[in-house]
């Protein structure tokens, strides 16, 4: 059975996805570093378990929840995993860039990964409403726009109320 998407989407989507991921890899290489301080490593076990639970809930819970649809079973799981990975990567970079006002290196901590996973989960929830109506290129745009809006809103609210 052939794909129901137009040829233009099937041809440009892999190239666009690879270009976007290559750009994210370059951004991570040049603008991020990991926090390896000793104080954070003491509370790492409890934080790691919370982060692991969030990721399992996002990947398996929301991914396989949409696999019950007859027409979208395996494609919905693949779309959810792709959107989760893209959303987490973009949310880590965006939160790091928005929270630093003299721009420098974005510090990646376990808390920033947990926050990015929660940001990406909001996209997965709203993607369940449009599943079957949009193609993967539109879902990629939805991930970038929604995570950007959520990160900007989070920074505006934290600056107003603090």
Automatic annotation (TrEMBL):
Keywords: Membrane, Transmembrane, Transmembrane helix
Ammonium transporter AmtB-like domain sequence ranges: 21-155
Membrane topology listed for this record: Multi-pass membrane protein
Compartment(s) where it occurs, according to its Swiss-Prot or TrEMBL record: Membrane
Coiled coil spans: none
Molecular function terms from GO: ammonium channel activity
One annotated Gene Ontology cellular component of this protein: plasma membrane
Pfam annotation, one family: Ammonium_transp
Membrane-spanning segments: 12-31, 43-65, 77-94, 106-132, 139-161
InterPro entries named in the record: Ammonium/urea_transptr, NH4_transpt_AmtB-like_dom, RhesusRHD
SUPFAM superfamilies associated with the record: Ammonium transporter
Protein name as catalogued: Rh blood group, CcEe antigens
Native species: Homo sapiens (Human)
Gene name as annotated: RHCE
């Amino acid at each position: 059975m052939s794909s129901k998407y137009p040829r233009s989407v099937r041809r440009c989507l892999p190239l666009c996805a690879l270009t976007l991921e290559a750009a994210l890899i370059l951004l991570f290489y040049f603008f991020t570093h990991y926090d390896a301080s000793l104080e954070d490593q003491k509370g790492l076990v409890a934080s790691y378990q919370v982060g692991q639970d969030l990721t399992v809930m996002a990947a398996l819970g929301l991914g396989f929840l949409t696999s019950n649809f007859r027409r979208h079973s395996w494609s919905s799981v693949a779309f959810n995993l792709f959107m989760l990975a893209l959303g987490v990567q973009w949310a880590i970079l965006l939160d790091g860039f928005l929270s630093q006002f003299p721009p420098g290196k974005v510090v990646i901590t376990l808390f920033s990964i947990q926050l990015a996973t929660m940001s990406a989960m909001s996209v997965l929830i709203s993607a369940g409403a449009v599943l079957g109506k949009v193609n993967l290129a539109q879902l990629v745009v939805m991930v970038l726009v929604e995570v950007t809006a959520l990160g900007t809103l989070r920074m505006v609210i934290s600056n107003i109320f603090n």
